[in-house]
Amino acid sequence: MPWIYLLLAGVFEIGFALGLKYSEGFTRPLPSVITVVMAGISLWLLTQALRTIPVGTGYAVWTGIGAIGVAIAGMLLFGDSTSWPRLLCIALIVSGVIGLKLVS
Predict the structure, then answer these.
(1) Phi, psi for 24 (deg, rounded to 5)
(2) Which of 18, 32, 38, 76 has the fewest CB atoms within 10 Å around its CB?
(3) Where does the chain cross the membrane (predicted)?
(4) Does residue 100 carry a pLDDT above 90?
């Protein structure tokens, strides 16, 4: 169950980060509220996961999920670069997250 909490925390972290873009510096009320709610849910789920998962592993996986998700969303939603070096770096993050799961 802790790994499910951590996965969900990462998904809400993606929502939080994307919300920062859509809130335009917290100048748009609805996206701003959604962003704050997403951050709160993400942090709560992270705290639940960290009851069992070591903090270093949990935090690294949480930020990795967020980084991967936001990078992919940026490519799909905002036309961010899809160059091979960028995709390679994302693949390295994915392998690191998988590696942490396997050794934990």
Answers:
(1) 50, 60
(2) 76
(3) 29-47, 59-78, 84-103
(4) no
pTM for the whole structure: 0.88
Separation between Cα atoms, residue 23 and residue 68, nearest integer Å: 21
Structure tokens at 16: 């939080």
Alpha-carbon span 60 to 68, nearest angstrom = 12
Is residue 10 within 8 A of residue 62, CB to CB? The reply is: yes
Mean pLDDT of the region 18-34: 96
pLDDT at 11: 98
What tokens appear for 21 in the block? 């873009």
pLDDT of 104 = 79
Rounded to whole angstroms, how far apart are CA atoms 26 and 20?
7
Q: Tokens for 43, please give them.
A: 């942090």
Q: What is the DSSP string of 21-51?
A: HHHTTTTSHHHHHHHHHHHHHHHHHHHHHTT
Instruction: Let me know: does 104 contact 57? Beta carbons within 8 Å.
Output: yes
